[in-house]
Amino acid sequence: MKTSIKGKIHYVGVNDRNKSLFENMWPLPYGVSYNSYLIDDDIVALVDTVDACYFEPFLRKIKGIIGERPIQYLIINHMEPDHSGSIRLIKQHYPDIIIVGNKQTFGMIQGFYGVSGEQYVVKEGDLLNLGHHRLRFYLTPMVHWPETMMTFDETDGVLFSGDAFGCFGTLDGGFLDNRINTDRYWEEMVRYYANIVGKYGSPVQKALQKLGSLPITTICSTHGPVWTEQIARVVNVYDRLSRYEAEEGVVIAYGTMYGNTEQMAEAIAQELSAQGVRNIVLHNVSRSHPSYILADIFKYRGLIIGSPTYSNQLYPEIEALLSKILLREVKGRLFGYFGSFCWAGAAVKRIAEFAEKSKFQQIGTPVEMKQAMTTPIYEQCEALARDMAAALQA
Ligand code: FEO
User: Ligand 1 centre and the CA of 144: distance in Å?
Assistant: First the structure.
């Protein structure tokens, strides 16, 4: 059967190629999948649902597998509406279904959907026997909401992991990692992690430690491929990102109105390259969507921010970016900065305030330029780059 994953477990998720912005914020150039799983055992269970817009194809997939048999359990690992959106409709089609969640789940179900009825409130380590498959529940709060939990099928080693190990990108044709080319998902996994889960590094680490000893053969996340052959790589990506571990390289994110501040960024980048730094990414914050900048900040250890002074404040897009970095509590970056002004400097002072809050290691001397590039400013930019390269290579 084309939907089959392992044992009696089937993929019944859907692809969204229509939405432009995930959470109405994050671009989806390759779309996104909402994954749901049906366990066609003696007792039938559904794991998570899909965005309500896709309920009809979702229900068709379910009925294609179980026909008119009832579903006894709906397991809710995560309540964000991209997965919980079809709960009310499922309940209408299967009025006797028992919803399985933890004590945090049911308040949200009531609040979002006004759905009540029979509940199975699980605690850490509880077991649900479906006949062939035995499901054990693990509470993993804040990966990505407080009610998040994971369900582990002890029979076949299948982990239903919620958002963890997820990525952007639709599943074109196949959903198993060994039946599709997975190249495009790795960058989108970093961008998904950095933007959606990025703040929750510590809960992700706790979850990884809790689940680390399980004999996992398959990871069924709520977004992206079902992982079978590339589990080690996926877990490694999440492990490194949640520890804020980064590669050697520098992100230079700058604002510029007329290209003067941009010349400082260029000068720094050229000297970084001359000093042997190979991964250098420049982001003009007015052109690059912040989701891509954040992904690169999670990826590389060096970060240099540059901003013109705008109405005695930071350039607004830089201010927004800095607040997104602080929100995610990014740690362990080597940090340098520069700024410019026309008649009264503010940007460098504001970035200094950010530097203190971020607890990043400050590298070199901040460069402040009045109006346009001069030889001394160029040399100061080069000095900042040399200090950054030396810190990276130390
Ligand atoms: Fe894919 Fe946190 O929802």
Answer: 7
Whether pTM exceeds 0.85: yes
Centroid of chain to Cα 360: 22
Cα–Cα separations (whole angstroms), residue 26 to 293, 329, 354: 12, 19, 24
Please give the span between the terminal C-alpha atoms of the chain, in angstroms, as a whole number: 54
Amino acid identity at 172: D
- Measured in Å, residue 34 CA sits from the centre of ligand 1 at 9
Q: What is the pLDDT of residues 336-348, one digit of tens each?
A: 999 999 999 999 9
**Nearest-angstrom CA–CA distance, 38 and 63:** 10
Decide: 222 in ligand 1 pocket, CB within 6 A: yes
Q: What is the set of domains in the chain, with CATH numbers?
A: 4-242 (3.60.15.10), 247-389 (3.40.50.360)
Residue 163 in contact with ligand 1 by CB distance below 6 A: yes
* Cβ neighbours of residue 193 closer than 8 Å, sequence gap 6 or more: 167, 237, 238, 241, 242, 298
